[in-house]
Design brief:
This protein is of the alpha/beta class. The chain contains 18 helices and 14 strands. A hairpin with a 2-residue loop joins strand 13 and strand 14. Helix 1 runs antiparallel to helix 2, helix 3 runs parallel beside helix 5 and helix 8 packs across helix 10. It comes from Castor canadensis.
């Protein structure tokens, strides 16, 4: 069986040459680090091994890590003359780690080896010569490895193997050629923040157990509300487990605002409520309606124009129809950045209609909210400041590690009155600090993960200017792709005109279909092209991009760019790869 750390960094070989202080091992590590990271590798070597350890010329091999590791002591003497104890993972289990007696040294060794595995994955994620995905079919992975849970514990050597195996088959979402989802990229500061968050391992419901995190959530949400355009950043908000839950929060609060009695008496106490959203909006609006007992039939889909934007006149028509039937319109959800086309609904016109008929206006800016950070592109959300609530997912366009979604509400105190249950064992009213910082009672959850710290730390590291540069670059890359393929042989655009967001939608037409008339047979054959090319992409592991049908349009590619590591060369590669994989279809 291969050792848990073979193939990259090696610490603790059986002959002792894997000692982190051993110059040979340090140089081998530096050779690899320099290969993938260039100047960063030099800095890492200097940081970890001192200025004397500079990377040598590449070409050396890295000896495999064995199950035994030399553990450095924790004294403060430099240089250290303390004897180094051996840690053999084959004879250790989780019960030998902290808080076990004498568990400090094996814990340090084990966690360092886990970090080594993670760092290897991080570095490889940015190496274009590595695969985006090592694809295996589900039955193959199930047969190749034993994933079943056992009654008896496995040793730490096996645990490290599981860590490596899991990452071996993980999708490298930080890879510059991964374009499959709206959430891509791997930010180093955000990653560090996520590690810190997991280490702190606390809950967000009260100030007493998460003092810094609660304050950072307060500061960050206020800043986001200021950027939306609410005076002084007034209002309320919360970080939730994704945009779907944020949208459901908006629906919940809008219902409570109109009929507060629904909290105690339920839907039987209120008339038939109707929500409105565009036919290109996210499916979470219907899911939220189902979960809240409003019903999916009570979500009316409004027609969109040829660019995917909600048509205001159709919205007003459908509102009047609902009122004539005796129903009560209570929410309009406009979309700022639709999932497929990247369209921005006309928020000013929608706001006028909502004001006219006294309806709660929500803006689902999960995908497009990041454009508010860009002076060049924020005009696309003009009117968002008139919304009653906004969903904004920094884990999408802003590149914050998953998950990071915020629901912002213009009226302060409404979330609290809508959701609070006064649990006396958590939210005691005679605490010795300002109780407004006990935010848990305004959330649907009790246990709530710390999602704010990675956004806050990235914001401190990049500044608003850094986010702006990130977003401007991604939109420039989308326009670059559009300009290349709009008149290129073998490509047909789904939409006319420049992309509204980083979404670029197109068909690749293989040579065999280019001579066919535009009829049902051609459409039927064209619908099979994107799925086959996507399957080949995954099997080769070279790149990933999504596809889907929409309305009467057969399967087409939807390219999205949110990873700042992507370059013009990666866009060129994608085009060439699509042509290579699809030319024989």
């Amino acid at each position: 069986m291969a050792s848990p750390g073979s193939g990259f960094w090696s610490f603790g070989s059986e002959d002792g040459s894997g000692d982190p202080e051993n110059p040979g091992t340090a140089r081998a590590w530096c050779q690899v680090a320099q290969k993938f990271t260039g100047g960063i590798g030099n800095k890492l070597c200097a940081l970890l091994y001192g200025d004397a350890e500079k990377p040598t010329e590449s070409g050396g091999s890295v000896p495999p890590r064995a199950a035994t590791r030399k553990v450095a002591c924790t004294c403060n003497q430099k240089p250290c003359s303390c004897p180094k104890a051996d840690v053999n993972y084959a004879f250790l289990h989780a019960t030998d780690l902290l808080p076990a007696c004498d568990g400090e040294r094996p814990t340090l060794a084990f966690l360092q080896d886990v970090v080594d595995i993670l760092l290897q994955y991080v570095v490889e994620s940015f190496d274009r010569s590595t695969k985006v995905i090592d694809f295996h079919y589900p039955n193959e992975l199930l047969q190749e490895y034993n994933w079943e849970l056992t009654d008896q514990p496995q040793n730490l050597e096996e645990i490290l193997m599981h860590c490596q195996t899991t990452l071996k088959y993980a999708i490298k979402t930080g890879h510059p050629r991964y374009f499959n989802q709206l959430s891509t990229g791997l930010d180093m500061v955000g990653l560090a923040a996520d590690w810190l968050t997991s280490t702190a391992n606390t809950n967000m419901f009260t100030y007493e157990i998460a003092p810094v995190f609660v304050l950072l959530e307060y500061v960050t949400l206020k800043k986001m509300r200021e950027i939306i355009g609410w005076p002084g950043g007034s209002g309320d908000g919360i970080f939730s487990p994704g945009g779907a839950i944020s949208n459901m929060y908006a629906m919940l609060i809008a219902r409570y605002k109109m009929f507060p009695e629904v909290k105690e008496k339920g839907m039987a106490a209120v008339p038939r409520l109707i929500a409105f959203t565009s036919e290109h909006s996210h499916f979470s609006l219907k899911k939220g309606a189902a979960a809240l007992g409003i019903g999916t039939d009570s979500v009316i889909l409004i027609k969109c124009d040829e660019r995917g934007k909600m048509i205001p006149s159709d919205l007003e028509r459908r509102i009047l129809e609902a009122k004539q039937k005796g129903f009560v319109p209570f929410l309009v959800s406009a979309t700022a950045g639709t999932t497929v086309y990247g369209a921005f609904d006309p928020l000013l016109a929608v706001a006028d209609i909502c004001k006219k008929y006294k309806i709660w206006m929500h803006v689902d800016a999960a995908w497009g909210g990041g454009l508010l950070m860009s002076r060049k592109h924020k005009w696309k959300l003009s009117g968002v400041e008139r919304a009653n609530s906004v969903t904004w997912n920094p884990h999408k366009m802003m590149g914050v590690p998953l998950q990071c979604s915020a629901l912002l509400v213009r009226e302060e105190g409404l979330m609290q009155s809508c959701n609070q249950m006064h649990a006396s064992y958590l939210f005691q009213q005679d605490k010795h600090y300002d109780l407004s910082y006990d935010t848990g009672d305004k959330a649907l959850q009790c246990g709530r993960h710390v999602d704010v710290f990675k956004l806050w730390l990235m914001w401190r590291a990049k500044g608003t200017a850094g986010f702006e540069a990130h977003i401007d670059k991604c939109l420039e890359l989308a326009e670059y792709l559009y300009n290349i393929i709009k008149n290129r042989e073998g490509y047909e655009m789904v939409l006319d005109g420049k992309p509204q967001h980083t979404n670029v939608c197109f068909w690749y037409v293989p040579p065999s279909l280019r001579i066919l008339e535009d009829n049902e047979e051609r459409m039927s054959r064209l619908s099979k092209v994107a799925p086959v090319i996507k399957a080949r992409m995954m099997e080769y592991g070279t790149t990933m991009v999504s596809y889907q049908p929409l309305g009467d349009k057969v399967n087409f590619f939807r390219m999205v760019i949110s990873n700042p590591a992507a370059t013009h060369q990666d866009i060129d590669f994608l085009i060439e790869e699509i042509e290579r994989l699809g030319q024989d279809l």
